[in-house]
Amino acid sequence: MHKNMRILNGANYIDLEVQLETDSSLPSCGDALIGVAVSSNGYTCKNQVWVAKQELDLFATSIRALDKYRKGEAVLSSMSPDELFLKVYAYDRVGHMAIVGKTGYQVTGAVGFDHSIEFGFTIEPEQVVKLSKAQWLTQDDT
Q1: How many of the other CB atoms lie within 10 Å of CB of 77?
Q2: What is the pTM for the complete model shown?
């Protein structure tokens, strides 16, 4: 399954291009390869990360609770440390929403260099509704 999702506010966005591993003969079945593209206040970055099925399931549960109750947070992290951290959260008691995160990778060679972007911006609650209904987060329901 291959699905795209854009979370945005004005010129700020994060694109998630999700490709679920569906081969049940593989131990990685249910894991996702996620292409990440971020533009936040003029800074841009692209990355590709693996996220474990258990992490996707936890994020799906948390994002649905965030959508329903308008409080708390939903966090998504990659298998490899520091490649992706994404948090969608209510930042006040009224239920206004924001997204923050970091994505990056290390380039190795004669000298190693870390490349990353930290980002954050507010989002409308409708973006959380859209995310909570994403097909790649309802893989057990399809």
Answers
A1: 20
A2: 0.91
Where residue 16 falls (left for φ over 0; alpha for ψ -120 to 50; beta otherwise) is beta
Taking the alpha carbons at both ends of the chain, their separation in whole angstroms is 11
Can you tell me whether residue 12 is helix, strand or coil?
strand
User: 105 and 117 in contact (C-beta within 8 Å)?
Assistant: no
34-68 tens-digit pLDDT? 999 999 999 999 999 999 999 999 999 999 999 99
Measured CA distances, 122 to 87, 108, 142 (Å): 12, 34, 31
36-68 as b/e, with b when 16 or more CB fall inside 10 Å? bbbbbeeeebebbbbbebebbeebbebbbebbe
Round to whole Å and give the CA distance between 16 and 22. 18
